[in-house]
Write a structure and sequence with these properties.
- Two copies of one chain form a homodimer.
- Chain A is α/β, with parallel strands linked by helices.
- Chain A has helices spanning 12-23, 25-28, 38-50, 70-79, 94-104, 135-141, 155-167, 194-200, 241-249, 263-275, 293-300, 340-347, 351-369, 385-395; strands at 5-8, 31-35, 60-64, 84-87, 107-110, 145-147, 170-180, 204-209, 212-217, 222-227, 231-237, 254-260, 283-284, 290-291, 314-325, 328-339, 377-379, 400-403, 406-409.
- Chain A has two domains: 5-151 and 351-395, Rossmann fold, CATH 3.40.50; 155-347 and 399-409, 2-Layer Sandwich (Dihydrodipicolinate Reductase, domain 2), CATH 3.30.360.10.
- Helix content of chain A is 35%, strand content 26%.
- Chains A, B: GO terms for molecular function: carboxynorspermidine dehydrogenase activity.
Amino acid sequence: MKRNVLIIGAGGVAQVVAHKCAQNNDVLGDLHIASRTKSKCDAILASVEAKKAMKVDGVFKSHALDALDVAATAALIRENDIQIVINVGTAFVNMSVLDACIETGAAYIDTAIHEEPDKICETPPWYANYEWKKRDLCAEKGVTAILGAGFDPGVVNAFARFAIDEYMDEVKSIDIVDINAGSHGKYFATNFDPEINFREFTGVVYYWEDQQWKETTMFASGRDWDLPVVGTQRAYQSGHDEVHSLATNYPQADVRFWMGFGEHYINVFTVLKNIGLLSEQPVTTAEGQEVVPLKVVKACLPDPSSLAPNYTGKTCIGDLVKGTKDGQDVEVFVYNVADHKEAYEEVGSQGISYTAGVPPVAAAMLIAQGDWDAGTMKNVEEMDPKPFFTILDEIGLPTRVEVNGEDKAWNA
Amino acid sequence: MKRNVLIIGAGGVAQVVAHKCAQNNDVLGDLHIASRTKSKCDAILASVEAKKAMKVDGVFKSHALDALDVAATAALIRENDIQIVINVGTAFVNMSVLDACIETGAAYIDTAIHEEPDKICETPPWYANYEWKKRDLCAEKGVTAILGAGFDPGVVNAFARFAIDEYMDEVKSIDIVDINAGSHGKYFATNFDPEINFREFTGVVYYWEDQQWKETTMFASGRDWDLPVVGTQRAYQSGHDEVHSLATNYPQADVRFWMGFGEHYINVFTVLKNIGLLSEQPVTTAEGQEVVPLKVVKACLPDPSSLAPNYTGKTCIGDLVKGTKDGQDVEVFVYNVADHKEAYEEVGSQGISYTAGVPPVAAAMLIAQGDWDAGTMKNVEEMDPKPFFTILDEIGLPTRVEVNGEDKAWNA
């Protein structure tokens, strides 16, 4: 039984994590939230209070913290007897927060791979460049670290494990499909920080096929997917974290990730990229001012959090897993559908933040209850998916399965 | 007989003017070129020398000049015994250069209306806001001022006058069509300074129909034109100087201007405009830097003069004039076709600069010879077009006519 949670970060996903922790503080114990800017934490606490989200009376405190400072993070953990850390800060702080957990024995959860600011799309598998180097140390010290426990990566890893375990003798391919069929009503906007969003799409797209890493580029490989609720949607192969752990754990399967983009998004992206406006390299204006174009584009675009109140429509994220069972081909689609408006009404965030923020809280509850308290470092597909789905069903992200022409709950 | 020319400006059009003046210095006398940045004038002189453009031995000198300074401009005119000024500087200096001409008695030629930096698309007719206020003074002092003597405005005004005089008893409509069917091989570029180019397209589009001013917006009114050499091309109603003088001189005719744009140009323009990247109002980046987005877009786009070496294809600019003759409907298309590559080989500029820069030199030659030395202020359609066409035929921009299914030289 581990208790007392520290949330690191104060963006859109942290807001969802805070609300969901509050709604389950009977299981999770004391709650803390820390980021470099304490006022952003306080705004999240005020929102939790406004929604009366705390299930039982309890602690929820805000702190100022530079999460790159291992000693300061370890001190905050010790001072507050924290046993579970949910890291939803910028991707640049993963390794320092993990070090603080190893030092203090607290369990560690994150939702995305570590990144260094000056590097984009390093060599695959991405986890081997940073996180997995600490795996032996976690095992030695008995520290639980659950990597990539958002929706994708995270829930989609559990979808793959579940489809293979339940329906197959042998897996042949895992295609993860992420569709946002919602509408924010703006001419153009990104669902995350535009700088991070565009950064994700300007590098190499890695995927795993025929037991080797292959490369393509963004928008080069697209296909239409006929999906539950959201209908037919076009998605394009993109680079994504979960491809890198699933390819390691299921090397016999092809592993690909597909992200949905409308023609309008692609057109705007293409215009901005080709003109050079997505560049991180500064240009000099005729008046002699040095400016990074991408930062100007960001300043012109809507703040992603401003989209939430008017966001309508649904997301559909799932895994199409193919394999064989008793010598017969079998095909299973495991998925979730979430609703932007419902997310906003419940926790004040849009659906993209909601799907990313709910799963790490489920993981924290599983660690608190003991089911996922592995005492070492794990990716999500290495853990039993059933208790994860059970909690996700209860806290807002139900899992469904399409198999043999039937659409049903995962446990029906 | 007037002699000795001062060219004001040192951009792409000034380069063409300089070469053409040099090629005709037996008629024009001493040549001078002045701009705020003398080194740009010197680069043009070096190009004139490299092409051995001077027809006869003679003077061609560069000067530093702030053309907003009337006294300095008048002094330069007097010191060098200049009798003809060709103003191809920024549109912001027209009125100060005109004042210097009125003060010294030199003839004045320009190629575009006066603009104030903080005003876009003032009330029609545009010439009445600035230039025409000086008409009586020019007449009183006997100063020749030929307004808008580039291609459009300029040659297209003469095309209209010619079509009406030669072929009609009554004119009903004048549609000016400007097509650049050339290709510069870049993803996107503007043929003039991007800041000025985009400025032209963000305001109201004025046109003259049913004897009154009407308004539309850019890209709202488009149609396909079947044209000589360049074939079928889509053009959109745009605001342009010549509409404002032709509507005044031929109020019984509808007067419209059409500019050719490909879908790609319109798409890029639309994306940039909708995101706010064409705004002249500063935005503040997340890091606190104040930046004007349009200036960053300009810094990212190719320098227009860099397009010239690889520009291929042709321009077609002409007037479709409709009216009646002896009670019968008549329709005449008067036009010119120019070639980007030929322009570059002759004067080191692309075709857009070439068509704008050759006509004011023809106007200067007509003033030097006496034909157009009006002793007052005139728009081009108020002058005899035939000697103008004769010189343009000789110096690189021949005029052709399509009438009754026949395509021929204007004087065939």
